[in-house]
Design brief:
elongated, single chain, 9 strands, five-stranded mixed sheet, binds FE2/S2 (inorganic) cluster, two-stranded antiparallel sheet, alpha+beta, 3 helices
Length: 154
């Protein structure tokens, strides 16, 4: 009796469905298309030349104050790399111009940066601060880095 009552409450079975028919394939969206659209030119691999593509044909003398240490810096390497090659360790952490652990003072000379946006404000740049991890010598330099240490040259 109990089972019969439950069976009475079950829904009616569905009528038979029509046979499935295949849908036409959807076209690929343009960004997933295996062949590029002729209207969209291919993207260049690099939109800007690398900022570190300067030739290594110049070398500049760098003096580190207040120790009066000296090293030569090529125009294709950062001051940090050049100093390390000469056995001078400048303070560093990120080495990409963002953390500011290497912040120092440019006493004399001119530099350029390997990165487009080094972590210095324009007023800090005007006051003579520099980031040696991404700074490249453009002339003989005098930099003030009291935290510099002597290490084995590399
Ligand atoms: S080491 Fe981080 S900004 Fe120079």
């Amino acid at each position: 009796m109990f089972l019969r009552a439950r069976r009475d409450r079950l829904p009616m079975p569905c009528p038979p469905h029509p046979p499935p028919h295949p849908l036409p394939p959807l076209p690929n969206p343009p960004h997933l298309s295996p062949t590029p659209s002729p209207r969209v030119p291919p993207l260049p691999l690099m939109s800007h030349p690398p900022t570190d593509s300067f030739p290594a044909d110049e070398t500049f003398a760098v003096r580190v104050e207040p120790m009066d240490w000296h090293f030569d810096a090529r125009s294709d390497e950062s001051l940090f790399e050049a100093a390390r090659r000469a056995g001078i360790r400048l303070p560093t952490s990120c080495r990409n111009g963002t953390c500011r652990a290497c912040i120092s003072v440019l006493v004399e000379g001119s530099i350029r940066y390997r990165v487009e946006w080094p972590g210095l404000s324009s007023s800090e740049k005007e006051e003579g601060y520099l980031l040696p991890c991404v700074a490249v010598a453009q002339s003989p330099l005098v930099i003030d880095v009291p935290e510099a240490e002597r290490i084995e040259p590399r």
